[in-house]
């Protein structure tokens, strides 16, 4: 069974993001970029399926700039067999990414596509769902457990206040939640080996798609800076302020 994993290049989760002075977006100059953490979980799950003998091939795919090759090489170092970059410098909307991924799905015919539930930069939480709609495949989102049983995937989903288990007929789309697994670190020998693994670069036009966006970002603003605290003189004053100023009691 072929497994396709979608990997996004994002600002590293440890970086404190800065908004550009003209509010047009986030400043990416000299900022550390990494694989989206939920995509790391997706790669880990695919590699574990391969280690269990369920997956025969794991293909990592990214849509984005040439620099996203770095994140694909990381996926290869973590255990993916080969990688595909759909290279574009366009500002990407989820729909554009989902259409490009759909074209890769049509070409590769995987039985399972694993995506992160959310990219930590845009917080869209919709690419997997859009890909499911475009392909017509069943979807199991926010997965905390995935079991493959013949022609079905049994996915335990984290929902408000509990867990839901769904059975999906393969081929299917799964998006990963935080508790699905704990991703491994790439070892140095595997980082070296990854350099020799195949990484194919395609233009969107090679797949017959366009990544031009139909929406644009109007404005990005940083959250309001936190005001300084104050010292109160007594419990009575604290209660008065909580009641009448903060209005929380
Ligand atoms: P989002 O819907 O943007 O929050 O992203 C959810 C997931 O979709 C990510 O964790 C990735 O698995 C996948 N994804 C989003 N954008 C891209 C991209 N440019 N290239 C590859 N995968 C992506």
Task: Characterise the protein shown here.
It is a single chain. This protein has six helices and eleven strands. With 249 residues, the protein is α/β, with parallel strands linked by helices. The chain has a single domain, classed as HUPs (Rossmann fold), CATH 3.40.50. Helix 2 crosses helix 5 (188-194) and helix 3 crosses helix 4 (127-135). The model has no long low-confidence stretch (mean pLDDT 95). Adenosine monophosphate binds at residues 6-8, 36, 38-39, 42, 62-64, 92, 94, 97, 115-116, 118-119, 122, 124-128.
Describe this protein with a few key phrases.
single chain; 249 residues; alpha/beta; Rossmann fold; 9-stranded mixed sheet; two-stranded antiparallel ribbon; 27% helix; binds adenosine monophosphate
Regions with pLDDT < 50 over 5+ consecutive residues?
none
What binds here, in terms of ligands, is: adenosine monophosphate
Helix and strand run: EEEHEHEHEHEEEEHEH
- Return the CATH architecture: 3-Layer(aba) Sandwich
Q: In percent, how helical is the residue content?
A: 25-40%
Major β-sheet strand ordering: 9-8-7-10-6-1-4-5-11
